[in-house]
Amino acid sequence: MTERVLTGDRVTGKLHLGHYVGSLKNRVALQEQYDTYVLLADVQALTTHFDKPDLIRSHLREVALDYLAIGINPDRATIFVQSMIPEIAELTVLFSMFVTVNVLRHNPTVKSESKHSGLDDMYYGFLGYPVSQAADITFCKASIVPVGDDQLPHLELARKIVRRFNELYKPVLVEPRALISEMPRLVGTDGNAKMSKSLGNSIELDSTTEEIAYKIKRATTDPARIRKNDPGHPDVCPIYAYHRAFRSSEVSEIREGCEKGTISCAACKALITSALEQLIEPTRERRAYYAARPDVVDDILLSGTRRARGIARETMEEVREAMSLDYF
Ligand code: ATP
Ligand code: MG
């Protein structure tokens, strides 16, 4: 059997360059070789946005358009809606029996995200979202999960859950592994370590030429470079990080020029602006095609979800049998 790939995104906002380098680029490549599943994580979006169901609703199709525009091919990959697979919720409940609260509390990604939320307590659903993610991965027996490095603790937990389940009951689940990209964490335009929807420091994949130019123009650079000829420190500059992520050639020249103060920040920004434009420009036509055909997009999501549901039912039957929950 071909190995299965699963990944997804919370539908809390449009996708950005961080998603692209962290995961989307790999997905587009992997779909050629593997049975690829892509999840629109609307339930997981609720863990932080339960009071904004309309936002999630509107972003569901927005993220689907991002996928299609960037090159996820609906003939090869299965794009589906998380909340329409109730077996994921069932599996989450069953897994939650043998995951302790302390393990979740000490998960570094959960910790840092909950710090950002500003709340001094955590919602039960939020604390448990890594368990629900383990269900997302295991319901379809995915073995490869292309993700950014913030997801590593979650993948580790998913692996533990699978091992525990298989040894407690019967070996029916598949242990997944993370596939971390060459650029596991893209910095934000404000210099924050992670470009993120929630931090407002992102460049969206549906940006216009003007938006790209504007955001790069406004982006933070090395604060030590005040005058053009001041020697710079590329490793603290988000623009240099973007050069590394999006330009295959001349990156060492940029480093040298920055360190010697022979290339100005403005010139450096102009180069990356045009590289980003080259990346995004070809996606605009595909985006426009699907944006003009909402019925086609709906069909893609419905048929993908149907396919995923079929697999979920099969796995759930095996799980019930393994756990002796198959009474009749
Ligand atoms: P939110 O702030 O709502 O959590 P997010 O920007 O973190 O949004 P997610 O939907 O949580 O996005 O993540 C989807 C996938 O994209 C994950 O695999 C994650 O690791 C990856 N990803 C997100 N942001 C980045 C980034 N800046 N660099 C690399 N990968 C990223
Ligand atoms: Mg996130």
TrEMBL record:
It comes from Paenibacillus ginsengarvi. Belongs to the class-I aminoacyl-tRNA synthetase family. One of its GO terms (cellular component) is cytosol. InterPro entries: aa-tRNA-synth_Ic (IPR002305), Rossmann-like_a/b/a_fold (IPR014729), Trp-tRNA-ligase (IPR002306), Trp-tRNA_synthetase (IPR050203). It comes from the Bacteria. This is Tryptophan--tRNA ligase. Keywords: Aminoacyl-tRNA synthetase, ATP-binding, Ligase, Nucleotide-binding, Protein biosynthesis. CDD domains: TrpRS_core. One of its GO terms (molecular function) is ATP binding.
